Q: What sequence folds into this?
């Protein structure tokens, strides 16, 4: 019962965090980084 | 779960996360808008075919930017994947996990199941998560520390990118050599040991491990059916004893224990659908 409550609480929290992030335009920031070559990741930068 | 079925799920998941093959011909990373969404597994967004963002890379970039904003979006997605699947992500959806699984299939005269320092080294991944992914990127601006110094998935992406655009080879210097050494060590270790990167170094695995006891995907052992034969513990490549701790932080939900159990005492379950005899109960005495 406790685990079930915790699971739903985590789902609600994750949905809230995603909603706040979207409202702040954070997906656009993720996209702008993801569509360029990450030089640090590949070991150049 | 049947080994071949899981391998099929892993292959489909890896393909779906790397579905834009144009990059292999153009030598550029994919520009498609789905990259605004993080994928659940470790899959570098600099891989030419990646169609999603790496959650660990995206988290570090958010934390290390000059205009610091709390990374609600990336944390929300990580929490969502964790709450739904826990470390089932490692067992079924992570492309780097699939690579290690395939490498471990390479025959070698002696495979290592475990060794003395194993249980201590398991804690290193939590230190990697806290230090390299969270703390250092906050203080060292514009530096995704884990990606820059450790991540072998990024090195592999760099190699794939360089084979697509050979001019990149000229830019590889000492840092690339360092990262290539790490990738080489992980590759060699994966032949000998089962999933060494997942066990000891992966910050994403460390994060999802925290959710294993509350996630939707769980395992349970029926203490009435368990005969305590120990076959499940002997079969587990992650060195978990499912008869005692079916929801151990190390369990990647591969289901190998279920296939070897002679009494079918181990099963997948969820916190929403519980039977009377449930997880983490001690096995019945013979």
A:
């Amino acid at each position: 019962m406790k685990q079930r409550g915790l699971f739903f609480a985590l789902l609600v929290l994750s949905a809230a965090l995603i909603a706040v992030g979207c409202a702040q335009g954070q997906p656009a920031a993720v996209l702008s980084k993801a569509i360029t070559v990450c030089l640090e990741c590949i070991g150049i930068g | 779960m049947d080994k071949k079925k899981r391998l099929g799920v892993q292959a489909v998941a890896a393909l779906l996360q790397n579905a834009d093959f144009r990059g292999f011909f153009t030598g550029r990373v994919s520009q498609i808008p789905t990259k605004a969404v993080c994928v659940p597994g470790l899959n570098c967004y600099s891989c030419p075919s990646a169609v999603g963002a790496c959650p660990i890379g995206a988290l570090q970039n958010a934390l290390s930017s000059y205009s610091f904003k709390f990374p609600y979006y990336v944390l929300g997605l990580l929490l969502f994947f964790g709450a739904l699947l826990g470390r089932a992500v490692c067992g079924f959806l992570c492309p780097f996990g699939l690579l290690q699984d395939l490498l471990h299939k390479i025959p070698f005269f002696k495979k290592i199941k475990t060794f003395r320092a194993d249980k201590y080294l398991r804690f290193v991944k939590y230190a990697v998560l806290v230090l390299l992914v969270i703390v250092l990127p906050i203080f060292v601006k514009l530096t995704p520390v884990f990606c820059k110094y450790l991540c072998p998935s990024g090195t592999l992406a760099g190699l794939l990118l360089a084979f697509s655009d050979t001019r990149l080879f000229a830019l590889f210097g000492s840092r690339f050599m360092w990262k290539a050494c790490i990738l080489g060590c992980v590759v060699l270790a994966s032949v000998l040991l089962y999933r060494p990167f997942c066990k000891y170094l992966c910050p994403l695995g460390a994060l999802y491990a925290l959710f294993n006891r509350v996630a939707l995907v769980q395992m349970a052992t029926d203490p009435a059916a368990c005969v305590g034969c120990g076959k499940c513990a002997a079969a587990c490549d992650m060195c978990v004893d499912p008869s005692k701790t079916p929801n151990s932080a190390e369990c990647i939900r591969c289901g190998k224990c279920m296939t070897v159990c002679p009494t079918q005492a181990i099963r997948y379950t969820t916190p929403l659908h519980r039977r009377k005899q449930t997880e983490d109960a001690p096995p019945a005495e013979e």
Remarks:
- Residues 7 and 98 of chain B are 8 Å apart (CA to CA).
- The first strand of chain B starts at residue 218 and ends at 221.
- The two ends of chain B are 26 Å apart (CA to CA).
